[in-house]
Amino acid sequence: MLLVSVPVMVALAVLLTNSASDSLTAAAEREGQTVAHAVTLRLEDWLSERRESLTVLAETAALAEVARRVADGDPDARFRPEGSKELVVLGESFNAMLDTGRRVAAQVKTAGVEVVRLTTQQQRSATAQVVETMEQLTDASRQVSATAQQIADAAGNLADLAGNLETTAATAAGGSGFR
Prior knowledge:
The structure is a single chain. The protein has 179 residues and is an all-alpha fold. It has 2 helices and no strands.
């Protein structure tokens, strides 16, 4: 067994303690920097996620506002997407849907104008046919009326002629002695 004096052992213990303390302090400082760096990185990640979440919320609110404007009849409402690729694709799709809706509305309007034009044209044609038919009926009625008047006049003439013949026959029979 090694015999060492107490003062040497105390000195050795102090030396070891100081050396261990310095090593522990250096390790703690290095570890503290590593922990601080890790915390900083995680905080940056968290803030980035929150920023993306806020961007998504803001873009969703903007999209909802455009949809409200469209529902209120604003023909110029458009969504200007920003942010992630997904939001840009969503915005472009939304705008394409609006463009399709506008084209369909324009086609419906054009078709409506054409229907009104054709209906008006058809009504004019039908009215012209009715007027022509009424004129033909009026002419036919006048002709029937004139013919009826001619027949009535002829009947009156026949009645007069028959009366004259009767008178002449009676006169002729009375004056000739034929009885």
